[in-house]
Each structure stands twice: as C-alpha cells, then as structure tokens.
Design goal:
single chain; 231 residues; alpha+beta; four-stranded antiparallel β-sheet; three-stranded antiparallel β-sheet; 5 helices; 40% strand; rod-shaped
C-alpha cells in the first residue's frame, strides 16, 4: 500500500513539473536556459550646444536690449570663426526674466541671448565649450553652455547586437550542456531583454541612464535563450 502511494505521488509531481515547463519535457528530453550578452562602446555622432550670454540689470530699456542683442551677434560671429558653419546654427533667441530682489522693492532683470548649434562634428562642439569659456573671460561676459551628445544609428546597432547576444546565449548553452555530458538539440525560445544605453562614466553606470553630457556611451543587449538538450 505504501509503495502504491509513493508511486502515485511521484507521478503527480512529474505531471506538475511537466505542466509548468520547469525542467522536463518528457522522460528523455530536458532544457537549459542561458543569458547571452552583447556590449559595445559607441561614440556619439551628433551634438547640440546652447550658448547663453547673460546680462543682469536693475532696469529694462531699449539700450539694454540692443546691447544684449549686439553681444549675441558678436558671439555668433566669433563662433563662426571657430569651426562652426552658418547652417549649423539652427536658432537664436532672447529670453527676459525678472524677479524682485529679496532686500528691496526694485526688480532684477535677466537678459539671456541664446545661440543653438547642432552639428555632426562632435569633436568641434566638444572643443568649443572650452573656447567659449575663455572668450567669456576675455570679454568679461557671463556665459553658460549646455551640450547634449547623441548617437543616431541605434536601429542598425540594435540588430547587430541582438545577433551577437543570441549567439553568445547559444555558445553558453553548448558549453553548459557539454559539461553534463549532453548537447543542445533544439532551440525552444529566444527572448530579447532590455536595450540599455548608459554613460561610460562609472558613477552613472550604476544607475543605467543615458548621460547626454558624455560623448561615449555603453550599449548593452541581453538575450535569454531556452534550449532542449539530449544525448
């Protein structure tokens, strides 16, 4: 009677395992699961830069507006002598903000003249940041810069890296199967994971986000493969 109960329990457990696909397909076939990885370092092929010339005054009038505008024009002319083409300056615009000073009733006006540049020449944009800072120091101006680097060929890159990651998953499966005296006989499924883009900066890598302030980016693709194995 006890042997009969044990046999029935064994059959029930086998049925549950087979139904859930945990490890057994039938009495002679098993499967293994592996993750394949593809990593690449890519250099951005496009950059956008905004140069802002800031003037702070306690009043607003036509003379100040004209002075602010002329500062932008001089900066634009200077930028065009430092490796930037006219067609790469995609916009120029003015901002005017004001706020009350904390210790008095009068207002403080902030005039900002912006020059927006977009270029495929990433190295020129990168070097321009330092040059703008030196120019601002020489001309005694308050200038700020913002740069965003981007890589634009992700579609092609994704396809190539998915193929690499899938092959890596298969290679790992082959080695694992061989280690237990078996071989991969069929592919059951391939699932693509996250296409991760992160900064090459070690600090930013821990948080896995695309830092647009860096020219180089680390791209990672993970693929999960499930393979049938047999003798």
């Amino acid at each position: 009677m006890k042997k009969q109960i044990v046999s029935l329990v064994g059959i029930a457990v086998f049925a549950i395992i087979a139904a859930k696909g945990i490890g057994i397909l039938d009495q002679s076939r098993h499967y293994i699961s592996t993750n394949g990885l593809s990593e690449r370092i890519v250099k951005s092929d496009k950059a956008k830069m905004i140069v802002s010339i800031i003037t702070r005054k306690s009043e607003s009038n036509d003379n100040i507006n004209r002075t602010s505008y002329e500062a932008r024009k001089k900066m634009t002319d200077w930028i065009l002598t430092n490796g930037i083409k006219q067609e790469e300056i995609i916009s120029s615009y003015s901002d005017l903000e004001y706020e009350k000073w904390l210790d008095r009733d009068s207002k403080k006006y902030t005039f900002t003249e912006n020059i927006e540049i977009e270029s495929r020449n990433v190295d020129v944009i990168s070097s321009l940041k330092t040059k703008v800072r030196d120019y601002a120091r020489e001309t005694n101006q308050e200038v700020s810069t913002k740069i965003a680097y981007d890589y634009t060929n992700y579609d092609k890159l994704r396809h190539e890296m998915l193929v690499e990651a899938a092959q890596d998953a298969r290679n790992r499966a082959d080695k694992l199967a061989k280690s237990i005296g078996k071989k991969v006989i069929d592919t059951r499924s391939i699932d693509t994971g996250r296409f991760s883009i992160s900064s090459c900066n070690d600090y930013n890598d821990r948080y896995h986000y695309d830092d647009q302030s860096t020219k180089e980016k680390k791209v990672t693709v993970v693929v999960k493969g499930i393979y049938d194995i047999g003798k």
